């Protein structure tokens, strides 16, 4: 038997057996964000807006700045402005403890970070099924929230750090 005839017989045997190709399963695309608290708000922000997260390092106060401007921090040799996000949003200032963190902002126009009271880790959401409505936001928080997500009976507000950075009030730290 020549090789071509053998291949034809093998192909016919596969067709006769009715073996189907495996099904391609489509997995829903996940949106991953970093979850943290500011006051009583549970926030989540896109990973692309964050450069890194570090424990709070010693801060050098800067005189004649607004109360929410906590100072300057040296993070791996880079001087970063530190903004107390809670205080900026009108909540009580962050009390620094073992849970406090600095979220380094991923923005080329600003060398800064946000101090938060509690980091809750990464959260995975289905961008279609996990959407939820957002109502009754505090006035200072509303301009930076671009939506809501809910999962397992919990709700997160999607906090847009880019909108915060673009806000003229945020950039005016002089008292």
As residue ranges, the low-confidence spans are none
Which geometry do the CA atoms define? Answer: elongated
N-to-C CA distance:
92 Å
Q: What is the name of the CATH topology?
A: OB fold (Dihydrolipoamide Acetyltransferase, E2P)
Strand order of the largest sheet: 9-1-2-12-11-10
Within CATH, the superfamily carries the name CheA-289, Domain 4
**Sheet/helix structural class:** alpha+beta
* Number of helices in the DSSP assignment: 4
Tally of extended strands? 12
CATH architecture: Beta Barrel
Q: What is the string of SSEs from the N terminus onward? A: HEEEEEEHEEEEEEHH
Give the C-alpha Rg. Answer: 25 Å
Tell me, what is the CATH class? Mainly Beta
Q: How would you characterize the overall build of this protein?
A:
The protein has 175 residues and is of the alpha+beta class. It has one domain: OB fold (Dihydrolipoamide Acetyltransferase, E2P) (Beta Barrel). The protein contains four helices and twelve strands; from the N terminus they run αββββββαββββββαα. The chain has helices spanning 3-17, 85-88, 161-166, 168-171; strands at residues 31-38, 41-46, 50-55, 59-60, 69-75, 78-84, 101-105, 112-116, 118-125, 131-132, 145-151, 154-159. The strands form two sheets. A six-stranded mixed β-sheet has the order 9-1-2-12-11-10, with no helix packed on it. Strands 3-7-8-6-5-4 form a six-stranded mixed β-sheet. The longest helix is centred in the N-terminal third of the chain and has 15 residues, at 3-17. The protein is elongated, with a radius of gyration of 25 Å.
